[in-house]
Structure formats: C-alpha cells, structure tokens
C-alpha cells in the first residue's frame, strides 16, 4: 500500500512538473515573439523617422534649421539629424527628447551644442544587450568614420580617436574641449546592464 | 508471497497515455500557433506594442 501511494505521489509530481514545463514554454515563446515584434517596430519607427529627416533636409537645405518636429505612426519626436557609421552598418536618426521612449526608438543627443557645431556633442543609444543596437560601437577603432548630417543637409565626418569603458558615475566624456574650434562627437552606450558606459570619441579634421 | 500475483494496471496506463497525448498536443499547438503568430501576427499586434 505504501509503495502504491509513493508511486502515485511520484506520478503526480511528475505530471505537475510536465504541466509547469509546458506553461513555461508557452510563456517563453510568447515573450520571444513579443520581443521580436518590439524590435521590428522600433526599427520600423527609426527608419520612418529617417525618411522624415531626409524629407526635411531636402525641403530646408542650407536654411540653417537645427531641429524639427516629426510625427510618425502616432509618435511625436523632435529630430536633430542623423548618424551614419558605415563600418558597423548603423544609420539612425538623432532625437532631442531625453526620454525613455526616445531612447527606445533611436539615438538621443545627451548634451552639447547643435550638431556639427564647434564643441563636444554627446549622443547616447541603448543596446538592449543585443548585438544589433548601439553596442556595435565597441567594434570601432582609431580612424573609423562617423558621419553626422544635420537638418541643413550638412554632413561632417568625424574620425575615432579614443574609445573604452568608463564608470557610470564618470561624466567627464561630456566635458567641452579646451580647443574651442574642435568639433567632437561622443557616442555613449551602457555595458554590463547599465553598470558601466562604453564611450567612443571622434573628432572632425 | 505469490510472485505471480497479477495486478491490473491498465487504467493507470490509460490515464498516463491520455495525459502524455495531451502534453504532445499542447506542444504541437504551441509550435503551430507560435509560427502563425510569428509569421502573420505582426500587423495585427503592432498597434498594441509599446516601443
């Protein structure tokens, strides 16, 4: 009798474990699909905003505008320009809003003067711990080109001269250069779940 | 003790078989449903996805 009871309990436990595994599989698949869809939507949104930026550039070429409000798919953002890094196949709009929503959509200007003006402009981007976002900047090395295009259609090439990991509390990369005529761009993203920052600095020649 | 005592386990086996068939069916549904949603569900779900 004891043996039968033991067997029944073991079977019940086994069944419960199997049911839990099946439920966990359902939840995992749902999460995977949702994450994939969210990434698709983000990339769709960023591409849509890039199209709008291109329209603004073609309509306002050489008129000196520095920002413009765009609406795409129900999202309103203030765009400043776009960034292209051919080496890592990155082409993203730069937004003005320093909000979580903006960071989830594209790159965000963290600090500094207007794009392509003298001074240090810091641009931040999420990487979501996946290789297809801003974490790709860790593949940049000295001499690699970062191209920034502002809304007047002016494109400036910046050449990487410094890169590496810094502490979350270190904000020295946001400082303005001593040389007032230097044009510097600083690309920033998080590493180790936000505990550190990966910083790439590039200078226009 | 009779070494050859017969124990009827057919009901237990049937129950276990039914349970395992249920598990297999739910796994097949998961794969089919997952593929359908992944391939054709984006446009339907898109308005509800927050970036």
Short structural summary:
Chain A is of the alpha+beta class and 205 residues long.
Question: Which short descriptors sum up this protein?
Answer:
heterodimer, A: 205 residues, Sortase, Chain: A, eight-stranded mixed β-barrel, B: 51 residues, mainly alpha, 2 helices, rod-shaped
Structure report:
- The complex is a heterodimer of chains A (205) and B (51).
- Chain A is 31% helix and 34% strand.
- Chain A is of the alpha+beta class.
- Chain A has one domain: Sortase (Sortase, Chain: A, Beta Barrel).
- Chain A has an eight-stranded mixed beta barrel.
- The radius of gyration of chain A is 23 Å and the shape is elongated.
- The model of chain A has no long low-confidence stretch (mean pLDDT 90).
- Chain B has helices at 10-40, 42-45.
- Chain B has two helices and no strands.
- The relative contact order of chain B is 0.07.
- At the A-B interface, helix 1 and helix 2 of A face helix 1 of B.
Alpha plus pi helix count of chain B: 2
Major sheet summary line of chain A? 8 strands, mixed, barrel
The share of residues in helices of chain A is 25-40%
Distance between the termini of chain B: 70 Å
Shape of chain B: rod-shaped
The interface involving the most residues is between: A-B, 21 and 16 residues
Largest sheet descriptor of chain B: none
Uncertain runs of chain B are none
Taken as a percent bin, the fraction of beta residues of chain A is: 25-35%
First-to-last CA distance of chain A: 87 Å
Described by its quaternary structure, the protein is heterodimer
The total count of strands of chain A amounts to: 9
Number of strand segments of chain B? 0
Nearest-integer average pLDDT of chain B: 85
The value of Rg of chain B in angstroms is 22 Å
Q: Helicity of chain B, in percent?
A: 55-70%
């Amino acid at each position: 009798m004891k043996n039968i009871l033991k067997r029944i309990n073991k079977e019940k436990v086994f069944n419960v474990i199997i049911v839990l595994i099946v439920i966990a599989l359902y939840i995992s698949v749902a999460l995977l699909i949702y994450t994939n869809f969210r990434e698709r939507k983000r990339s769709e949104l960023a591409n849509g905003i890039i199209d709008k930026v291109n329209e603004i550039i073609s309509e306002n070429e050489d008129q000196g505008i520095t920002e413009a409000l765009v609406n795409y798919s129900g999202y309103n953002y203030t765009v400043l320009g776009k960034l292209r890094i051919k080496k890592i196949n990155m082409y993203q709009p730069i937004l003005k809003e320093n909000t979580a929503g903006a960071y989830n959509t594209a790159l965000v200007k963290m600090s500094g003067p207007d794009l392509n003006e003298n001074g240090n402009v810091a641009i931040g981007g999420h990487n979501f711990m996946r290789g297809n976002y801003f974490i790709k900047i860790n593949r940049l090395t000295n001499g690699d080109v970062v191209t920034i295009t502002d809304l007047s259609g002016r494109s400036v090439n910046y050449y990487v001269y410094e890169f590496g990991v810094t502490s979350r509390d270190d904000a020295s990369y946001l400082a303005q250069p001593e040389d007032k005529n230097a044009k510097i761009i600083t690309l920033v993203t998080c590493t180790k779940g936000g505990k550190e920052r990966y910083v790439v600095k590039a200078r226009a020649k | 003790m009779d070494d050859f005592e017969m124990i009827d386990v057919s009901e237990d086996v049937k129950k276990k078989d039914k349970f395992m068939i249920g598990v297999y069916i739910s796994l097949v549904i998961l794969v089919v449903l997952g593929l359908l949603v992944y391939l054709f569900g984006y446009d339907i779900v898109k308005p509800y996805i927050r970036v």
